[in-house]
Write a structure and sequence with these properties.
The structure holds 2 protein chains of 2 kinds.
Chain A: E1 5-7, E2 10-13, E3 19-24, E4 31-37, E5 43-50, E6 53-56, E7 65-68, E8 75-79, E9 88-95, E10 103-104, E11 108-112
Parallel strand pairs in A: 2-11
Antiparallel strand pairs in A: 1-3, 3-8, 4-5, 4-9, 5-6, 7-8, 9-10, 9-11
Chain B: E1 4-7, E2 10-13, E3 19-25, E4 31-37, E5 44-49, E6 55-58, E7 61-65, E8 71-76, E9 85-92, E10 100-102, E11 106-110
Parallel strand pairs in B: 2-11
Antiparallel strand pairs in B: 1-3, 3-8, 4-5, 4-9, 6-7, 7-8, 9-10, 9-11
Classes of the chains: A mainly beta, B mainly beta.
């Protein structure tokens, strides 16, 4: 049973470009969470999705950031018009039920030049 | 919002030593989780605690869910070099939509 798969592992973008980060949850998991981690810091919650629905986006900036988890395919975290401050590691986690423990992917390291 | 204070921020270990770290919060959590993160990787779950007072072991790791539900500690016994890494506590609360709130991490390093 494959774990949570994230791609790409590393993504380099220039300021103003768009970044798309993908996450395929573990098989059978319908709950997906996105977290952001800055160097030397803990993970900060961004958004929680359950198939086709955004349940909680309280940690996601209102501008430029969006997330989706379609019926078919991976969850996507999209950052439009990236700025240098968006540089961070973005982690996706999944769980089978709402109050079950989370399993994390290896992350996408976004670097904005 | 909810905040977790994790201490110490960093520590040096010598092989064979026992180490301890803890997390405290002003909020109540119904689940405490401990993760380890290696460089360039995502956090890996070590131990999950679901009941106040619960004491759970996983090999050389032992963690406890505080009685007040506002704290937890993690002990590593007889440390070995591969214990080096960053350890995070995380609390999960139904009132916060079950999303995890992470502590700032404890960086475990080997004594030179």
């Amino acid at each position: 049973n494959a774990g949570v798969m994230q791609n790409p592992r590393h993504l380099v973008r220039r300021r103003g470009q768009e970044a798309r980060l993908r996450c395929s949850p573990m098989k059978g998991h319908s709950h997906v969470y996105w977290y952001r981690q800055l160097p030397e810091e803990g993970l900060k919650f961004m958004v929680y999705l359950q198939k086709e629905n955004i349940i909680d986006e309280s940690g996601m900036p209102k501008e430029r950031f969006s997330a989706e988890f379609p019926k078919e395919g991976p969850s996507i975290l999209r950052i439009q018009q990236v700025v240098r401050g968006d540089s961070a590691a973005y982690f996706c986690a999944s769980s089978p039920y709402v109050d079950e423990k989370l399993f994390f992917g290896s992350g996408t390291q976004l670097s904005v030049l | 919002g909810q905040q977790l204070n994790q201490s110490p921020q960093s520590m040096f270990i010598q092989e064979g030593e026992d180490v301890s770290m803890n997390c405290t919060s002003s909020s109540i959590f119904n689940t405490w989780l401990w993760y380890k993160q290696d460089p360039g990787e995502g956090p890996v779950l070590l131990i999950a605690l679901y009941k106040a007072g619960e004491l759970t072991s996983n090999g050389r790791l032992t963690a406890q869910f505080g009685i007040t539900r506002k704290d937890s500690f993690l002990n590593i016994s007889a440390s070995i070099p591969s214990d080096v890494g960053i350890y995070f506590c995380a609390g999960q609360s139904a009132t916060a939509g079950n999303k995890l709130t992470f502590g700032g991490g404890t960086r475990v390093l080997v004594k030179p």
